[in-house]
Amino acid sequence: MISLTAASARSLQRTIAWIVSIANAALVVYALTAMQPLGGYQFVESVEWLSDIGLKYAVGLDGINVWMVVLATLLTPLALFAARNESTHQKSFHALILVLSASLIGAFVATDLLLFYVFFELTLVPTAVLIATHGSGDAKAAAIKFFVYPFIGSVFMLASIAGLVINHYQQTGLMTFDSVILSGAVLNGTLVLDQNLERALFAGFFLAFAIKTPIWPFHTWMPQAQASTPSNGSVDIAGILLKIGAYGMLRFALPFFPHAAVWAAPAIGVLAVISILYSAVIAFGQKDMKVLLSYATISHLGFVMLGIYSQTVEGVTGALITMINSGLTTGALFLIVGILAAQRGSRNRDDFSGVWLTAPTFGTLTLITVFASIGVPGLNGFVGEFLSMQGAWLAPQLGYSYVVFAVIGIVLSAAYLLRMYRGVFMGAAPEENAIHEPSTGELAVLGLLIVAMIVIGLYPNIITSISNASVTDLVNSLNANSQ
Amino acid sequence: MLDAYVPLLAMVGIAVFIAVFVLSVSRILGPQKATVRKLAPYESGMEPIGDAMARFPIKFNLVAMLFILFDVEVIFFFPYALVYRQLGIPGLIEMGSFVLVLLVGLTYVWKKGALTWD
Amino acid sequence: MAQIALPSIDYMVILQILIIFGSATALLLIDLFIPANQKKITALLALGATIGALVAGPYSNSGVTMANAVAFGSSTLIVNSIILFATAISILFASDAMHKQGIERGETYVLMLLATGGMLLLAQGASLITLFLGLELLSIALYILTAIAYPRIASEEAGLKYLIIGAFGAGFLVFGIALTFGATGSLVLSEIATRIPVTGIERSLFFTGIGLMLVGFGYKVSLVPFHMWTPDVYQGAPTSITSFMAVGSKVAGFIAIIALVQMLGAEAQVITPVLMGIAVLTMLVGSIVAINQTSLKRMLAYSSISHAGFVLLGVLGSTQATGLRAPIFYLAAYTLTNLAAFGVIMVLEGSEERDLTLADLTGLWTRNPWLTGIMALALLSLAGVPPTVGFLGKFLVISAVWQSGYMWMAIIAAFASAFAAFFYVRALLSMFSGTTDRPRMTLDARSSLALLIVAVGIIAVGLMPWSINAIALAGS
């Protein structure tokens, strides 16, 4: 799958980009239907790579990362769709989106730690180049910040990886980066880390993932990057693919360092809650709708962190669903802002009013999306946030006080999103240059996304039936360890 | 192992002592009556002519450099001259290849025109 | 009179050295009869000699010869191959760029071969005298090469500066050799290793000697605080020479340092703390000062200083049973990457003599995508971003250091490389952003070939299992 994408990334034709992304999506859907609802990895491929240092090209899917892959493959065509009118650098754009998509999928499916790291860093390159080539304003500065900030985090993770693997080697005599072996060794006690060392190594992983996620106070690269990217939202949609931060926490940071994770959970919970509240407050004051949405993303990821660090089945499932939601809902919102910006040439919410009057269908679809993002029951956002908070409440290391503040965050998100909606879609339509209905194609794509939102909202089992076994396994191993 | 260097150290000490001693004694005991003649730079008894910093053609430099290059090589021939019988044929070959390399250098210099004065 | 037996010589041990020196001498003669506008024939012959030596590598005998002065082993094979590869690529670069700039001379290639011979001597040296000879041969050829862009003032100035600093460094080296010889009574590395004095003034003298030798080599590989010459010389020298110098003399110098550290064996712990400090300083100073540079060549010069710190760290991490894999792999990575980076700068200079700045990279993407791609690869590899060869090198060094128990060093190394990422990325993204009114550019066949080879190398060596395994075999 990856090799397919990577190979054709060099093909510069737009049609090929489309074919590849859709073929990928089809492959993933096939994988999804063929998944067994069991724990452990399926579709495992493992090839010795640098055998001398124990590096393998090992990939596999389980109930958790399969959803990440689904998200990545579905959003790739969406980003291509948003950018279909992009005139400059057409070819490079498609190639870069495909490279990004390939490296993301690679990062999600990698079960070898170093292989994961390779893909993890590789995602920076195409995205930074996308921002630099397609951005507006001080795009270069934004791109540098986008690259360097997460890169700083990830080199510390590299040092931590080296430390973990070498400790494993010294204690067991086996040089390997296989995450299954490593977390297994932690679980059954063949790898025992000194308390301080464990916390130091955990800090390296945490820093990398926290910057990437991002959560407060490591988030400053994100709004700037978003402000400088092109208005049509294509790059942002690609950008919200960057769920690797949260995914990495769940997949690597927790199982490798369970004690340190429990130790740090209250502090991280506080950071997550600050993320939720802080970004909600900031979003309230934003006029640029794209920047507003980027703060909304940070807010969502606060819930994800809360769910992950609750280390309960409910919380982790909630985090997983929230990650998918954030991709779907915020992706749709970026598309909407892109459509608006294309017609008006501005992303400032004050430049719009009364869109509903001239484009009612568009207005309805947007309203549903906004509701989904706020977390109205019956739509997808509710399920994820509710489960995350339930997990946090149940978790001994977190508790209800975190949830209280998180709920305030939801209220605030309703406030800023509805305010934006009211300002843009309600009120009197301008005399001239009124926003007209977008094309049927655009409406259809939005409609599809909304169908997905409703399906997840009404029937979350579609996700949990596949993910449940893996999540339960993961949580059980964490709890067995941290006692 | 360092004991072997003790005589060397003694010799250095004696040499420094004699130099310092002779100079300071003549400084202290000798009469010091400066005249114009005495203060003039010593140039083998000749009257000093012109500026010491005078410029002269770069060609001299080139010749001097080439001379040193080929002259230093000659140093290798003196020890070789003493032991060439003991070294036998292998030594002859070694020395021959050495001269050959020198010849390449000479040819280069010649062909580049460094040996023509004008 | 008794016959004096000359030390026996196994010519197969010094095969590569013989090919290089022999063809250098012959080429000096042949070049006399090649007209000035046909110097690419000389380049072609020099290239042939280099490739010949490269091919001859696997046929050489392992062992020690010439009265323990020269050795050849599996790790020497790797190092020699790196050096000869760098020379071959540099000859291709020089032949293109110097011709364009009107400063092509036949002597350039002869001197490059002689410098290469010096590097090979350093790599194969098994006695202090050989090491000194190699270093001097390498240095003198490089002094001339630096100043070869006559009558360009910057080039002459750089040559003079390099000569004076280099002579200074060589002085340290000779003094160190003298003290070491005095303390142990031998010049052969393997003999010295068995005679390291355990007590008394001899021991102090011995380690003073080792320290002075390391200073001498430290100048060559530009460790802080012996790095001051590097930016000026890199900037002033013709770019094709800069790439040769940056790569070759660093590889050769480090091999000599590795030989010294290995010779010390367990005693190396006496100097390890000092070298650790130097490595940290080198990494940090290189990375931090580079941030402020606008000249591309100066930036790469500081980057090369920073990388020298990494290699030194790898050398220190390797004294403990992990083998030489990390530093040698890092050097190979460094070679490929810097050849690519300097190569692109050289192509960009074209026939101009200007010192390129960051601003010259702006909009390169629209002028030549392939060139941009290669430069991007090189910069990513310098920053250590996967899947390039630079990443694997960095990772190997960090894990080697960690494995030897210097956890803090690994963390500082991570820190330094995070710092360094900033200016690499700034240069990288400059190429993709902005527009330029300069025309598209086309490439000469020689440069294209050379750049293509190194670009493929950056990816392939970073991904292919054979690369690291081959070096691991040679590692001990």
Number of domains of chain B: 1
| Helix content percent band of chain C | over 70%
Strand content of chain B: under 5%
Distance between the termini of chain C: 46 Å
CATH class descriptor name of chain B: Mainly Alpha
The count of DSSP E runs of length 2 or more, i.e. the number of strands of chain B, is 0
Average pLDDT value of chain B? 84
Task: Give an account of the 3D structure.
The complex is a heterotrimer of chains A (483), B (118) and C (476). Chain A has helices spanning 2-9, 14-34, 65-82, 90-109, 113-122, 124-134, 139-172, 179-187, 195-212, 221-228, 234-239, 244-256, 258-284, 289-310, 313-344, 355-358, 360-374, 380-394, 400-425, 440-458, 461-482; strands at 42-50, 55-61. Chain A is mostly helical. A two-stranded antiparallel ribbon of chain A has the order 1-2. The longest helix of chain A is centred in the N-terminal third of the chain and has 34 residues, at 139-172. In chain A, 63% of the residues are buried. The model of chain A is unreliable at 1-13 (pLDDT under 50). Helix content of chain B is 69%, strand content 0%. Chain B is flat, with a radius of gyration of 25 Å. Chain B has helices spanning 6-29, 36-39, 58-111. With 118 residues, chain B is mostly helical. In chain B, 0% of the residues are buried. Chain C is an all-alpha fold. Chain C has a domain at 271-476. Chain C has 19 helices and two strands. Chain C has helices at residues 15-31, 40-56, 74-101, 106-124, 128-146, 153-184, 189-194, 200-221, 229-236, 239-264, 272-291, 296-317, 325-349, 364-367, 369-383, 389-403, 407-432, 445-463, 465-474; strands spanning 63-65, 70-72. In chain C, strand 1 and strand 2 (70-72) form a beta hairpin. Chain C starts with 14 loop residues before the first helix and ends with a helix. Classes of the chains: A mainly alpha (483), B mainly alpha (118), C mainly alpha (476). At the A-C interface, strand 1, helix 5, helix 6 and helix 7 of A face helix 15, helix 16, helix 17 and helix 19 of C.
